[in-house]
Write a structure and sequence with these properties.
disordered N terminus, 8 helices, Rossmann fold, Tumour Suppressor Smad4, 353 residues, 23% helix, 2 domains, elongated, disordered C terminus, ten-stranded antiparallel beta sheet, alpha+beta
């Protein structure tokens, strides 16, 4: 008589004299607007090849995946898209499996793909299937921290996997979002960047990390990061790691275009964090006060989260709270980087190892 044992993503059917692995159930989350139209072709090829490797594939557009319980019966998810697609999927990826989160493998087909590059992932169907195969054989995903920006009215906060920033770069993201008509790649940022550089709007901020002051009513840019990387190959939060349970906060004081350009150059050279004017701290809770906020505004023009515009507002006093979500999302690594479980040594009857 056969019995089925379920352990994480592995389904072993045990029969007398042999053991086989049942097909893993994989959900493919995709965003057709990501990756300049490459997503549908990738999904089609993945669906064609996955059954030959023992995977059952379920097609899941983002709007369907967001329904409560939609991911609970899946062993893993392949997220086809970039950082924006990951950002918009975080809430239901982490809510799956009773809040433990569903193992997520990123197939990076967005514009920047910052998180995927940090993990060493590539947009190749064969590499995706290899990583899923390692997961099926018992490799453990890495449990990544996230951050969350709280709404002042008590609604569920906005999670993020990369970073949030408050400053002129966020205003550029807002301007691009208002003008977006297609995928466009990096070129869509050129005109807004030049316009903002000519007339930068740099607000006064007060920042504390776990109750310790980082900035007090100073003009400048704030980065709150989960991982070290930022678009355009800038490692702004160079000390950050996404498995330490902490957020990394970096404040760069600036009031003019020249100062902003100087910080950009230092960041490109990797010298910004050690600069005597830079302020860097790690902690679980970051509190920000925007002293020049617009009361009653439904979103902050100077705030971007994972390169996306979110309807997040501060309270009446201009305060905003960001907290760490330790080990919130299981992320699947490339097959070569996955740690396989140690197999016990075979023993003879009556002899312990």
């Amino acid at each position: 008589m056969a019995a089925t044992i379920v352990h994480g993503p592995v389904h072993a059917t045990i029969c007398p004299g042999r053991a086989t692995l049942a097909a893993m159930r994989i959900g493919v989350l995709h965003n057709r607007a990501s990756g300049r139209g490459k997503g549908p072709a990738f999904v089609q090829r993945l669906r064609a090849l996955a059954p030959t490797r023992g995977f059952d594939v379920l097609d899941l557009p983002l709007d369907l995946a967001s329904h409560a319980g939609a991911l609970d019966d899946l062993d893993a998810v392949v997220l086809v898209g970039g950082d924006g697609t990951l950002h918009h999927a975080l809430a239901f990826l982490t809510a799956a499996h009773g809040g433990r989160g569903v193992p997520t493998l990123i197939a990076p087909l967005g514009t920047e793909n910052v998180v995927a590059k940090e993990l060493g992932l590539r947009p190749r169907v064969a590499a995706t299937l290899d990583a899923l195969g390692a997961l099926r054989r018992g490799a453990a995903p890495v449990r990544s921290d996230l951050g969350v920006v709280h709404h002042p009215d008590g609604r569920p906060g906005v999670p993020f996997a990369l970073m949030l920033t408050i400053g002129p770069d966020a205003a550029i993201v807002h301007r691009v979002a208002r003008r977006r008509t297609g995928t466009g790649g990096r070129l869509r940022f050129v005109a807004p960047t030049l316009a903002r550089a000519a007339r930068p709007r740099i607000g006064r901020l007060s920042v504390s990390v776990d109750g310790q002051p980082l900035a007090s009513e100073q003009r400048g840019c704030l980065i709150v990061a989960v991982g070290p990387r930022y678009p355009m190959r800038l490692d702004l939060a160079r000390k950050a790691t996404r498995t330490d349970g902490l957020l990394d906060a970096l404040f760069l004081p600036a009031g003019t275009t020249a100062e902003l350009l100087a910080w950009a150059l230092l960041a490109r050279l990797g010298l910004h964090v050690g600069h005597p004017r830079a302020r860097y701290a790690q902690g679980r809770r970051v509190e920000v006060t925007l002293h020049e906020h617009r009361p009653g505004a439904q979103e902050l023009e100077d705030l971007q989260i994972d390169g996306e515009v979110e309807r997040v507002a501060c309270d009446a006093q201009g305060r905003l709270v960001v907290e760490s979500l330790p080990a919130a999302l299981p992320l699947v690594l490339p097959a070569a980087r996955q740690a396989m479980p140690i197999q016990p040594s075979p023993t003879r009857a009556g002899v312990s190892a």
